[in-house]
Each structure stands twice: as structure tokens, then as C-alpha cells.
Amino acid sequence: TWNASGAEAATGIRTVVKWTLEQVAEGVLVRVEQSGFRPQDQRSFMGAKYGWERNLGELERVAATLQ
């Protein structure tokens, strides 16, 4: 789960992050899905989208150095 904390805990986002790893010929496919955003969570959704793209891109870069 990925939930708001502190002062926003009661009314902030409450989402679920699901990681799926799948063996493919080229290695491992990593899929990340974050669900549970409400219409009022648009700002959090956009922040999460940016964050996941950046962090997964970095993960891909590091993984490529291990091959």
C-alpha cells in the first residue's frame, strides 16, 4: 500500500502498488501498477506517474550494467 501519513492520513491517498516480475527471453519484465486514486487525487496521481517513470528508468539503467 501507499497511503498518506501525518496530517493527511485521514483524507489523503490510499493506494495499492502491485509489482509483477515476468521471465522473458531478454531477462525480466518488471511491471508496476498503482491503483486506488480518486478524482481528487489528480496531483498525487501525476506525482506518482512522474516518480515511477523516473525510478523505473533508473532501475533499468542499473540493471543494464549487471548484464
Structural commentary:
With 67 residues, the chain is an alpha+beta fold. It is 36% helix and 33% strand. The protein is built from 1 helix and 3 strands; from the N terminus they run E-E-E-H. The protein is elongated and about 45 Å long.
Reading side by side through the largest sheet, how are the strands ordered?
A: 1-2-3
**Could you give the order of the helices and strands?**
EEEH
Helix content: 25-40%
Our count of helices gives 1
Strand % is 25-35%
Write down the Rg.
15 Å
* Biggest β-sheet description: 3 strands, antiparallel
Q: Rough shape?
A: elongated
Q: How many strands appear in the DSSP assignment?
A: 3
Distance between the termini: 31 Å
Question: Which structural class should the secondary elements be placed in?
Answer: alpha+beta
Q: List the uncertain runs.
A: none
For the residues shown, what is the average pLDDT? 93
Please give a quick description of this structure.
The protein is an alpha+beta fold. The protein has one helix at 42-65; strands at 2-3, 14-24, 27-35.
Q: Would you spell out the secondary-structure blueprint of this structure?
A:
Blueprint: E1 2-3, E2 14-24, E3 27-35, H1 42-65
Antiparallel strand pairs: 1-2, 2-3
Supply database-style keywords:
about 70 residues, alpha+beta, three-stranded antiparallel β-sheet, 3 strands, elongated
